[in-house]
Amino acid sequence: MSSEPFDLDRTTTALLTGLFDPRNAAAWEAFDRRYRPILVGFARNCGVRENEAAEVAQETIVRFVEEYRAGRYDRTRGRLGAWLVTIARYRLLDARRRAGTARIARGDSAMIDLDDERSMGAAYEAERRHAVLREALEELRTKSRTDPKTVQAFEMLVYHGLAPQVVAEQMGMSTHDVYLAKSRVAAKLREIVLRLEAEYEEAPGDWESSGARPSDGLRG
After folding, report:
1. What is the pLDDT of residues 99-120, one digit of tens each?
2. How far apart are CA 63 and CA 187, in angstroms?
3. Which domain holds residue 193?
4. Contact, 86 vs 115, CB < 8 A?
5. Secondary structure (DSSP) of 71-96
6. Contact 189, 218 (CB under 8 A)
7. Is residue 60 within 8 Å of 127, Cβ to Cβ?
8. How far apart are CA 76 and CA 176, in angstroms?
9. How many whole angstroms separate alpha carbon 148 and alpha carbon 144?
């Protein structure tokens, strides 16, 4: 294992640089921690069950690192996400073949067509946005001085879709305070998300080219 310390809050470029060294376990762990949840969610949206989605994510990450270290991944020719999706597609096809049916965990209408490159790319991007928001919210909960009650009210209002009056009643707050909680948390969360967007960026300007940014809509 490399004795050089590895900052886990790195850009994708730094993570990829670290992966070149097989002894750099910290780079592997940081890359795995960032991309495994994205790939698991992506695989679930492609119709496989939870345990199969975990296998798809594991196999995809291992295969990517092998190909990357062998020099087969050229970042100038495409985004990292597109490469991961291509690898995952073959793992997903294997999972469907093993199941012996196209209906794995959801109805056909809910499943992503594995031959539709645009749909698969959109599914991956949706999971990448969700990953940024999840990490930002966790950082807000654990590393900021924001009142947990305020954060909970924000989550109930924004993520669970409860009416402000319902949130106010359940949290013992006034409706006015609920709206204030939303505004304050959204502003702090946006600051974190903007930083994480840069760390998760897979190519210059790729958030703009791939659709909505995670920070879209997070305004007080």
Report:
1. 665 444 444 445 677 778 888 8
2. 39
3. 143-220
4. no
5. T---GGGS-HHHHHHHHHHHHHHHHH
6. yes
7. no
8. 50
9. 10
Q: What angle do helix axes 164-171 and 175-200 make, rounded to 10 degrees?
A: 100
Residues with Cβ within 8 Å of residue 210, at least 6 apart in sequence: 79, 81, 121, 125
55 and 154, same domain (yes or no): no
CA 191 vs. chain centroid, Å, equals 18
Alpha helices (H) along the chain: 12-19, 25-45, 50-69, 80-99, 117-143, 148-158, 164-171, 175-200, 206-210
- Asked if 80 and 202 count as a contact pair (C-beta separation under 8 A), the reply is yes
Average pLDDT, integer, range 201-207: 76
Give domain status of residue 178, yes or no: yes
pTM exceeds 0.90, yes or no: no
pLDDT tens, 57-89? 999 999 999 999 998 887 666 688 989 999 999
**So what's the pLDDT on residue 111?**
63
**Residue of 196, 143, 9 whose CA lies nearest to 151:** 143
Q: Is 180 exposed, middle or buried (0-12, 13-18, 19+ CB in 10 A)?
A: middle
Clarify whether residues 111 and 6 are in a common domain.
Answer: yes
